Amino acid sequence: MSQKKRQKPVVWVEQILLKMLPHQDEEEPASYRGSSGSCPGTVRKMPYLGSEDVVKELKKALCNPHIQADRLRYRNVIQRVIRYMTQGLDMSGVFMEMVKASATVDIVQKKLVYLYMCTYAPLKPDLALLAINTLCKDCSDPNPMVRGLALRSMCSLRMSKLDQWGQAEVLNFLLRYQPRSEEELFDILNLLDSFLKSGSPGVVMGATKLFLILAKKFPHVQTDVLVRVKGPLLAACSSESRELCFVALCHVRQILHSLPGHFSSHYKKFFCSYSEPHYIKLQKVEVLCELVNDENVQQVLEELRGYCTDVSADFAQAAIFAIGSIARTYTDQCVQILTELLGLRQEHITTVVVQTFRDLVWLCPQCTEAVCQALPGCEENIQDSEGKQALIWLLGVHGERIPNAPYVLEDFVENVKSETFPAVKMELLTALLRLFLSRPAECQDMLGRLLYYCIEEEKDMAVRDRGLFYYRLLLVGIDEVKRILCSPKSDPTLGLLEDPAERPVNSWASDFNTLVPVYGKSRWATISKCHGAERCGPELPKTSSFAASGPLIPEENKERVQEVPDSGALMLVPNLQLTADYFEKTWLSLKVAHQQVLPWQGEFHPDTLQMALQVVNIQTIAMSRAGARPWKAYLSAQDDTGCLFLTELLWKPENSEMQISVKQNETRTETLKSFISVLETVIGTIEEIKS
User: Fold this and answer.
1) Disulfide: which of 105, 434, 492, 607 matches 396 by Cβ 3.0-4.6 Å?
2) Three-state DSSP class for 622?
3) C-beta pairs of 297-301 under 8 Å, 24+ apart in sequence
4) 437-464 pLDDT per residue, tens
């Protein structure tokens, strides 16, 4: 999948580091002189002990503050750990101590520690997250050598030993890194290639998004990645998990925006099963519409025809609309199927078929004759407003081709007083006036009666105004009526009616593996906006001073959701980039703008909170380890106007409460209220789920 296959960094790093280690016959450092039987200043080798004794000895040395204070002695102990590790001894017992040893400015020591962590992370999955957190912090180090080393080490971590959530977190974090060269880009892609084949759909989706983002300048690479994840996506679309199946289908539709025929050879995978829920069936029908080609059109149409008689009226109607959509390209086959469906004389089927015919004769004028021949008699099976409007429109526009058109409209005129939908009455006025122009003798009397009713008796002002307008238009003359009602029709080839053009992958890559494919971009933006606006918290209590500090977490890109400014709405920037120094300096320089306490009963799960905060675009800067008492977390967020929110969460289990302290770089009371309501919602939701 890449242009170059390069040796994994962990291999050459290990080779270089091994050359730096002292050989077996070299003298041990002075820090390990014997306690007795040796002269001051003499150096002797440590006696060979069993692996458990060696681990205990090294752990004791690594924890010794006197050794830690001596840079060379500390490094020599770490070198001994690496040497024993390369000799096959199990050194996993000093994992915690080695992770602590990474907190140094000594590049050589960092390389040694990173080599150790990358080797033992698979054997210590519970502790591997510590290694990842350490590497994440070093990825933001001012020293470019440290950043590069941390990133390479993170890429070479054998993440397959982590659980799927840990792998997904690492892949998500890597989105924040920008490769400095094409060579480095393909190094990273090569290292992460195996995650496109993961058994976890979440990992596959995370890896796919990472590849699409990193390869934004290489469309052929993006296409290759989408080809490779076709299998996992198809498997997810057939998953027993309904939620997973639905999300996968939404992402398939997103991919089809850029690669229309991408899944065409697998169209049968999107046939609906009887036991599937309604929302999954609707997604599959939408996908089938986009997969139709000359080779499979007959099979797809036969499948959709079967859905048209489904016990669910909504699903049956969706299938009919799908056939109508396919009819733009394969008109004759679809019109034949739709005509046969009218013969079933089912109200919900007839209603949607007539609506489909209305749209079809406008977009595909060549099918008008067939549609006009199919319409007689269908008025007996239409009761709802949409179906009536569609039929009346067809009778008005193409009534000269339908022999009984005036008599069908006359039935509607006779029953106009009992009609409850004003839209049907207005459509009837327009259709009857149109038909009057082509068949005046048959329509004159009923048109007069309809105009009289609408002007004199109708209570709906819109219908009355339409009637008055047409009456006055007739007074001007028939030529003026023809000029207005029979003006040139809209061109069905207008861009608005055409199938949307293929979109480049980069136009939606940042939305992949998010809720945007599920809700749609505009709808998700509205939901996000309403989330901050609909809950305005109570009057804020008086604030008090509260200070603390914390480290960092950086960010990926600066795209912001563009919304119409609304004084009552809060739009948080999806991705926020801060440095450790900036966060600490800003936190210490600001006063607490708001502080409150929320109840919290029972246990606390930091990972759940962190994921929930990410959904609403609040970033976790730092947090205590799980189980710590008291527990703290530092958060950051920024709205679309640049207002920065820094937050401290303090959980005190003995008091069963969560204390929230918020600082703001600009004094904006209403915005602060909205932000507090977002925090309250997240914390309250987690509390409800937990309980």
Assistant:
1) 434
2) strand
3) 297/326, 297/330, 297/333, 298/333, 299/267, 299/268, 300/267, 300/326, 301/326, 301/330, 301/333, 301/334, 301/337
4) 999 999 999 999 999 999 999 999 999 9
Residue 552 clears pLDDT 50, i.e. is over it? no
The answer to whether residues 572 and 654 touch, using CB atoms and an 8 Å cutoff, is no
Tokens of 108: 């050589």
Q: Do the beta carbons of residue 284 and residue 236 sit within 8 Å?
A: no
What burial letters (b/e) apply to 633-668, b meaning 16+ CB within 10 Å?
bbbbbbbbeebbbbbbbbbeeeeeebbbbbbbeeeb
Instruction: Work out the pLDDT band at 338, boundaries 50, 70, 90.
Output: very high
Query: Can you spell out the DSSP letters for 360-399?
Result: HHHH-GGGHHHHHHH-TTGGGG--SHHHHHHHHHHHHHSG
SS3 615: helix
Contact 126, 132 (CB under 8 A): no
**CA-CA distance, 23 to 564, in Å (whole number)?**
68
| 461 contacts: CB under 8 Å, gap ≥ 6 | none
In this structure, the strands spanning 657-664 and 644-652 are: antiparallel
Read off the pLDDT of residues 319-333 as tens digits, 9 standing for 90 and up: 999 999 999 899 999
Say if CB 439 and CB 410 are below 8 A apart: no
For tokens 């959904």, the residue is 615
- pLDDT at position 667: 86
How many angstroms separate the first and last alpha carbons of the chain? 47
- For 647, the token pair is 């937050």
Tens digit of each residue's pLDDT (9 = 90 or more) over 485-509: 887 665 544 444 445 567 889 889 9
Task: Tell me: cis bond preceding 551? Omega within 30 of 0 counts.
Answer: no
- For residue 572, give the DSSP letter: B
Residue 235: alpha-carbon gap to chain centroid: 19
Give pLDDT, residue 538.
35
Radius of gyration of the chain (CA): 35
Cβ distance 95 to 127 under 8 Å?
Answer: yes
**How many angstroms separate the CA atoms of 34 and 45, rounded?**
9
CA–CA gap between residue 327 and residue 436 (Å, rounded): 31
Per-residue pLDDT at 612: 79
Q: Is 300 exposed, middle or buried (0-12, 13-18, 19+ CB in 10 A)?
A: buried
Cα–Cα distance between 163 and 168 in angstroms, integer?
Answer: 9
Q: What percent of the chain has pLDDT over 90?
A: 37
- Which contiguous run of DSSP H or E holds residue 620? strand 619-623
CB–CB of 286/253 below 8 Å? yes
Q: Residues 447, 429: contact at Cβ < 8 Å?
A: no
Q: How many residues can be counted in the chain?
A: 691
